[in-house]
Amino acid sequence: MASNESNKLRIIVVGGGIAGLAAAAVLRQRHEVLVYERDPASAPERGAGLGIGPNGSRMLKKAFHFRPEHVKATVCAGSRTYDKEGNL
């Protein structure tokens, strides 16, 4: 019978954005994962925000046992999306 170690895959995730890091975190639970990021910036700009919609929240809860009360967050009552010309 094969050991757990021999069943592990060696996986490369290209991109250290939110999706790449989330994928790496889930994959790392059972496999060896390496993340490559091209952007030399070591940290995102301060004050940047991140909006997570209902589907994203469900994924975080399921994959990471995420609980909103464990982070500093503000519930968004609504949003508007504008194009590059400023039209709603």
Automatic annotation (TrEMBL):
<dbReference type="InterPro" id="IPR036188">
    <property type="entry name" value="FAD/NAD-bd_sf"/>
</dbReference>
<keyword id="KW-0560">Oxidoreductase</keyword>
<keyword id="KW-0503">Monooxygenase</keyword>
<dbReference type="InterPro" id="IPR050493">
    <property type="entry name" value="FAD-dep_Monooxygenase_BioMet"/>
</dbReference>
<protein>
    <recommendedName>
        <fullName>FAD dependent oxidoreductase domain-containing protein</fullName>
    </recommendedName>
</protein>
<comment type="similarity">
    <text>Belongs to the paxM FAD-dependent monooxygenase family.</text>
</comment>
<dbReference type="Pfam" id="PF01266">
    <property type="entry name" value="DAO"/>
</dbReference>
<dbReference type="InterPro" id="IPR006076">
    <property type="entry name" value="FAD-dep_OxRdtase"/>
</dbReference>
<dbReference type="GO" id="GO:0004497">
    <property type="term" value="F:monooxygenase activity"/>
</dbReference>
<feature type="domain" description="FAD dependent oxidoreductase">
    <location>
        <begin position="10"/>
        <end position="46"/>
    </location>
</feature>
